[in-house]
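Hi R.,

Here's the chain you asked about this morning:
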Amino acid sequence: VEQIKNDVCYSDVPVVLVGISAGVSYGALGSTHHSLHDIALLRAISNITIIVPADNVETEKAVRAAAQAEHPVFLRFGKAPMYTLHSENVDFKPGRAIRIRDGNDIAFIATGEVVVHCLLAAAYLEEYGVKARVVSMHTIKPLDIDEILAAGKSCRAVITVEEHSVHGGLGEAVAAVLLQAGICVPYYIVGIPDEETVTGSQADIFRHYGLTMESLAEKALLLLGESVGILSHQVGSK
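And here is the predicted structure, written out as tokens:
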């Protein structure tokens, strides 16, 4: 981190840093191989852009944008094959989030590979009359302030989702934006808690910490004050 701060960011040189197998990609190798604090560390350093793509289309466009950038960029990639969430002509710009699905009941603001779980949760919630917005906040720094404020003003609740520690990541950054704007809505940060993570596959760890479609849908209903009994029964039976 000291080298990144002094040799790259202090000098503000166009260096592209690439983090691979981020989050809990190497789940079975245990917490020594989990990367859950990189965003928190780099967010505190000036002059660097942080991008966490949600799918293969965002990944390709992020790489091209980083190659043309005039300032330091950190690209955070996972290891598993990615879903395709966008068409090739999606408008991708660093610092500008992509609203993949619209809705005014609850907003999922997510980054990286967990965006797809938010989309699945949103589709499931629609069966219960809940309209969920899904935002791919692919750029953690700088944040898309306008998109965050729009979610806070027009939705009844906001949930952030990230494959990262709940400390210093997307959730705390979004919360700061809302609070500084005087927007108070029911809010929940879904991520990895402040503990040594469990060991297992990436999917196992996602299930353990509630980063799955089922858990996200249930958290959304709880945050909205809805009953989750029917949802829990239906999800558990699938």
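One quick note: Confidence is low (pLDDT under 50) at residues 232-238.

Cheers,
M.
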